[in-house]
What we know:
Largest sheet: 4 strands, mixed
Amino acid sequence: MISTPQQPVPQYKKNYQRYHRMFPEIPTILSSSLRFDVSADAGQRVRVSVLEGEAPPRPLILVDVRTPEERVVSTIPGSITPEDLVRLPLPDTGAPVPPLVVTYCTVGYRSGMAARRLAARP
Length: 122
């Protein structure tokens, strides 16, 4: 039997695993389960929905809880900031079911904290 050295786990994966355990009540949505639709009639507005087990797909409101500096580097099209979520009315998705508000960040801690705060709101 030949033994091979185990590959080290990158730090971001260790952090994600640790943070994921810190928020057991917060469900995880994988990017592979998202569908992005660009609506040209709405000025290139991007609609995001969850594909997994939803018929029709449930609309999402993506809230990017990263810093403004991080958002300059990259962002998911159609996402809003926490300030937008508080300040603006929720976008009309045109769907028969209410949208699901999903927070995201780089690794998971800030989005977990934000999701926990949102879930605690009346």
